[in-house]
Amino acid sequence: MKKLIALLIAAMALVGCSSAPAKPSETPAGTAGTTGGAAKEVNVGVSIYKFDDNFMTLYRNEIQSYFDSLSNDQVKYNVTIQDGKNDQAEQTNQIDNFIAQDYDVLIINLVQSTSAATVIEKCKEANKPCIFINREPSEEDMNMYRDADGKATDPYADMYTYVGADARQSGKFQGEIIADLENKGDLNGDGVLQYVMVVGDPENVDAKYRTEFSISQYKESSGLGVEKLDEQRGDWDQAKGQEIVANALTKYGDKVEVVFCNNDGMALGAAQAIAAANRTVGKDIYLVGVDALAEAVELVSTGGMTGTVLNDHIGQSHQAVDAAIKAVNGEKLDTYYWVDYVKVTPANAAEFK
Q1: Least CB-packed of 49, 201, 310, 320 within 10 Å?
Q2: Are residues 321 and 67 in contact, defined by beta-carbon separation less than 8 angstroms?
Q3: Which is higher by pLDDT, 153 or 30?
Q4: Within a 13 Å sphere around the CA of 289, how many CA atoms are in the beta-carbon half?
Q5: Is 4 part of a structural domain of the chain?
């Protein structure tokens, strides 16, 4: 009997030793809270208003590249970028799918800025951070969960943001580029600037501000009057920009002194139309755009465009990624993150080539 009791005690001791929990200090280092040494995975859903936009192609590629550069053995960023195909219904479906698949954060380049409130509500209900880029929602939508003093009335106010450049600044810079010319763009010397405006999308706040502030700033800086000969919607598209300017030059001829384009895509089309009409930029007409696409900067450096305005896709994409990571880590977001525009003229174009 004594031997049996001794054997039972020994067996119990062995069981107790084998089931003892590991101490916290025994957890392998560098696993960021994961098991088996695997990196923490963060799923990022990105929807771009349309893939064949010149500027947004650069932007989305940089988003992917920057996330890739930040992935390491502790955290891996899985980025899914989808084409909104310039169709708000298509983009809304993408957003719904990102939420249904439990993505950690969304980065949205809206097809229609007016859809921001709907997107915010969807993300709020799912408790998903949302980073709006490039197309600025209305101030009302960005502050829908803040009071008149800017204080949050709901925790979700700190979980969504807009990252972009202030489109008013880009319009002002376009106006200044023309006003800073020796003749202030007034080729016929009548004290009035006769111009054509090629608008991206009238419902887009960037297009509204660039259209408005390019002219208001020109008047302020030059002290001259203005006469709008034509204003047409080009939907940010090069072919449409070419068609609009070709028609304007046919209709108004030498009366057109300046062509303002809300982006470089349309300005590149305008440059083609100007050349086809046997007009020469810098001699008998002026042309400005926005974005500082490589092709546009080359034209500025060789005289084919009067100037453009750098829309810093690298600075903006990196800021958007940084904001997304802050949100995933539970940090509060500012309502806005701004990245400055830069004037590009023949004097400094080489710096941007």
Answers
A1: 201
A2: yes
A3: 153
A4: 29
A5: no
Element (H, E) at 81: strand 75-83
Q: Report the CATH number at residue 218.
A: 3.40.50.2300
The closest alpha carbon to 259, from 178, 203, 189, 192, belongs to: 178
Domain that holds residue 293: 167-310
| Cα–Cα dist 348/77, whole Å | 37
Do 53 and 47 meet the contact criterion of CB atoms below 8 Å apart? no
Q: CB–CB of 245/269 below 8 Å?
A: yes
Q: Are residues 148 and 218 in the same domain?
A: no
Check whether residue 130 and residue 226 sit in a common domain.
no
Indicate whether 128 belongs to any domain: yes
Rounding to the nearest 10 degrees, give the CA dihedral for residues 216, 220, 221, 223: 120
- Residue 195's nearest CA partner among 182, 181, 203, 185 is 185
Residue 176 confidence (pLDDT): 98
pLDDT tens profile 157-191: 999 999 999 999 999 999 999 999 999 999 999 99
Residues 152 and 198 in one domain: no
Q: Tokens 């806005």 correspond to what residue?
A: 336
> Which pLDDT score, from 0 to 100, does residue 36 have?
54
Distance, in Å, from the CA atom of 237 to the CA atom of 52, rounded to the nearest integer, reads 9
